[in-house]
Amino acid sequence: MDEATTAAETASLECHGIGVQRGGVRALDDVSLRVDVGEIVGLIGPNGAGKTTLLDALSGFLARMSGTVTINGADVTRESASRRSRRGIHRTFQGSRLFSNLSVEENVMVGALASGRSAAAARSECDELLASLELDRWRHQRSSGLPQGITQRIVLARALATRPRFLMLDEPAAGLSEVETEEFEHLLRAAREAGTGVLVVEHDMRFVESVCDRIYVLSEGSLLFQGTVADTFASPVVQQAYLGEIEH
Ligand SMILES: Nc1ncnc2c1ncn2[C@@H]1O[C@H](COP(=O)(O)OP(=O)(O)OP(=O)(O)O)[C@@H](O)[C@H]1O
Ligand SMILES: [Mg+2]
């Protein structure tokens, strides 16, 4: 465990006062957020609100920003994405990028090997994940061109193979059927029970309502609301800024 970690600050991913300028726009302004291990936190808001930019800030994909990011109490604001991933955070990308010329199994192995385990341990982790996420029958197929429900499960398997303490997902339910979405919720709950802290960006409000423990709402780069699922959905300000516009 990192020397900067203290008992009071154990096992959380936090940011404080994040500000980001992007393409002449204030993409984020004074945004603070916390995710603890063992919880699923939703990050919602209209298109262009800054959700993906906030994942970029947390995971180390922004060269310039103000504010601080801490992992288990250690200030990682100046650390690269790869150093942060070694501290146990993993993020997926909007649009589910896979290595399209690799097989399903090879994609998951990339995650398993990234965590620095031996090849044999990575192989056995990969086998377990392919079985538990019901991906076995596709394991030798190329990952490109598979149905969206399978693709999102491969993305999740590759992410879980890194054994993340904190997992950030950018619109994992996009393009999934109702049944596939429910299966995905089940997998996320299993990750939570295993002690992972999950931050999930999603526009599917049925999914958010069903799977999240707490929610942050972004609007035009600022934090509009944070609270329990029930409080968020009942909030007039959230209704007006976002929920009124979408199907729920
Ligand atoms: N690479 C970039 N270069 C310039 N501007 C960008 C870049 N990425 C995002 N932006 C701008 O930053 C703001 C926040 O965008 P961001 O992609 O974070 O929103 P989002 O909440 O993820 O939206 P969506 O729900 O559509 O994915 C928007 O005004 C967007 O146009
Ligand atoms: Mg986005």
What key attributes describe this structure?
globular; 248 residues; disordered N terminus; 4-stranded antiparallel beta sheet; alpha/beta; binds adenosine-5'-triphosphate
Briefly say what this structure is.
The chain is an alpha/beta fold. 36% of the residues lie in helices and 25% in strands.
Please explain how this structure is put together.
This protein is of the alpha/beta class and 248 residues long. It has a domain of 172 residues: P-loop containing nucleotide triphosphate hydrolases (Rossmann fold). The chain contains nine helices and ten strands. The strands form two sheets. It has a six-stranded mixed sheet. A four-stranded antiparallel sheet has the order 2-1-4-5, with helices on one face. It is globular, with a radius of gyration of 18 Å. The chain starts with 11 loop residues before the first strand and ends in a 7-residue tail after the last helix. 40% of the residues are buried. The N terminus is likely disordered. Bound molecules: adenosine-5'-triphosphate (ATP) and magnesium ion (MG). The site of adenosine-5'-triphosphate (ATP) has 13 residues, from strand 2 and helix 1.
Helix content: 25-40%
Corresponding CATH architecture of the domain at 7-96 and 164-245: 3-Layer(aba) Sandwich
Q: Measured on Cα atoms, how large is the radius of gyration?
A: 18 Å
**How many H/I helices?**
9
Question: Any low-confidence stretches, pLDDT <50, length ≥5?
Answer: 1-9
Mean pLDDT over the residues: 91
Q: Kindly name the structural category.
A: alpha/beta
Question: What's the CATH superfamily of the domain at 7-96 and 164-245, by name?
Answer: P-loop containing nucleotide triphosphate hydrolases
Bound molecules: adenosine-5'-triphosphate, magnesium ion
Number of strands: 10
